[in-house]
Specification:
This protein has 16 helices and 2 strands. By secondary structure, the chain is an all-alpha fold. The chain has a single domain, classed as Growth Hormone, Chain: A. Strand 1 and strand 2 form a beta hairpin.
Length: 376
């Protein structure tokens, strides 16, 4: 899932030079998957109930592979936009259903399994960010492979295996799951706690996609090369992996109640550091990464922990990711627009800092031990 998205940021300069897109347009391109997630996330719960989670997830992986191929087709730039949108649709369904799968199959170990899941997202995303630029420079027939081949390799190389393994692991599983209550589909949109989880999801996702899209550009503005800037994005995501794995250690005892509000503090320090001393990017990137991975794991954990069963978890996941990615989609676009407007990164990083402060405030209320769809 993640490599299809994270390989884009380090290649934005190449894509812009090849297609003539402006910085603002590239920001919109980076936001296309987020818009798709906002639009299609609400469909995942109903699709799962009608066809069963295994089948829906299998076909979502197929859609993801198709989008990855279309995005890299040579010719008109429209294939880049269409492929990116199709990628977004495939990931939208998977994003929603995975917390429900964790709730169903690992109900007694939700934080630990969610940490493993988010760590794998961060790890493979980091690899994609680190190798995508070198792959684009590999010579094929005397010419560089280019950004299209690089995105195809990093985004698509594992998907055929994922499709095969998922099919094998779930062969024979029942296709339909209609017995659960219908209340989760309707009541979830009027539940105040669900809106808090959605806000937490959206704000942390906005932080991640602002950084994964523009961190390479920020790095290059300090004099670092394109390849090194890609490595900086990889380092950010490797520390995100570490943050995901460390989260279960935080979610213990009394501190669990305050964890959603405390975790963003590391990123607040990192964002302020990038504003004040951008040359020390290798000092601030680990702080941003640790917080990013932990807040993603925290948001997915909230989707499972704030629901009493996997059907409610699926409904909460669909609603919160739909709302959340509406918030997140604005992040990379406004971040890039502020850079175009001012010519520097201070205004953009001020936006990031404001998002993190708001994430902290929302975390105070989302951390309370309550359940969605419970009668008041």
């Amino acid at each position: 899932m993640r490599p299809t998205i994270t390989g884009l940021g380090p290649l934005l300069d190449q894509i812009g030079a090849d297609t003539g897109m402006t910085i603002s347009t590239l920001g919109v391109l980076a936001a296309v998957p987020l818009v798709a997630w906002a639009l299609f996330s609400p469909l995942a719960h109903d699709l799962s109930r009608r066809f069963g989670q295994p089948r829906v997830l299998l076909w979502s992986l197929v859609v993801l592979l198709a989008g990855t191929v279309v995005r890299s087709l040579p010719g008109p730039v429209v294939s880049l936009w269409i492929g990116t949108a199709v990628i977004g649709i495939g990931i939208a369904i998977i994003n929603v259903l995975m917390p429900s799968v964790v709730k169903r199959d690992f109900a007694g170990h939700v934080p630990a399994v969610t940490a493993l899941y988010t760590a794998l997202l961060a790890g493979f995303g980091a690899i994609s960010s680190g190798v995508v630029v070198p792959i684009s420079h590999v010579e094929l027939g005397g010419d560089p492979a280019g950004w299209r081949i690089a995105l195809l390799v990093t985004g698509g190389i594992l998907l055929p295996f994922a499709i095969a393994v998922w099919w094998w692991a779930h062969r024979g599983r029942r296709a339909h799951s209609r017995s659960a209550s219908q209340h989760g589909r309707t009541g979830i949109w009027t539940d105040p706690l669900a809106w808090l989880v959605a806000a937490y999801m959206g704000l942390q996702a906005s932080m991640f996609y602002m950084l994964v899209t523009w961190l390479a550009a920020i790095s290059m503005s300090t004099g670092r090369s394109e390849v090194v800037a890609g490595v900086d994005v990889m380092v950010y995501q490797l520390f995100s992996l570490a943050g995901s794995l460390l989260l279960p250690l935080v979610l213990r005892g009394r501190i669990e109640r305050f964890a959603p509000a405390l975790i963003p503090s590391l990123a607040i320090v990192g964002a302020a550091g990038l504003m004040l001393a951008p040359g020390a990017i290798l000092v601030w990137t680990p702080l941003l990464g640790l917080s990013s991975g932990a807040t993603l794991g925290m948001s997915l954990t909230l989707m499972a922990q704030r629901a009493r069963d996997h059907d409610a978890a699926s409904a909460l996941s669909g609603m919160s990711q739909s709302v959340g990615y509406v918030i997140a989609a604005m992040g990379p676009v406004v971040f890039g627009w502020l850079h175009s407007l001012t010519g520097g990164w201070t205004a953009s990083l001020s936006l990031l800092l404001a998002v993190l402060v708001l994430l902290t405030v929302v975390g105070v209320f989302a951390g309370r031990d309550r359940y969605v769809l419970d009668s008041r």
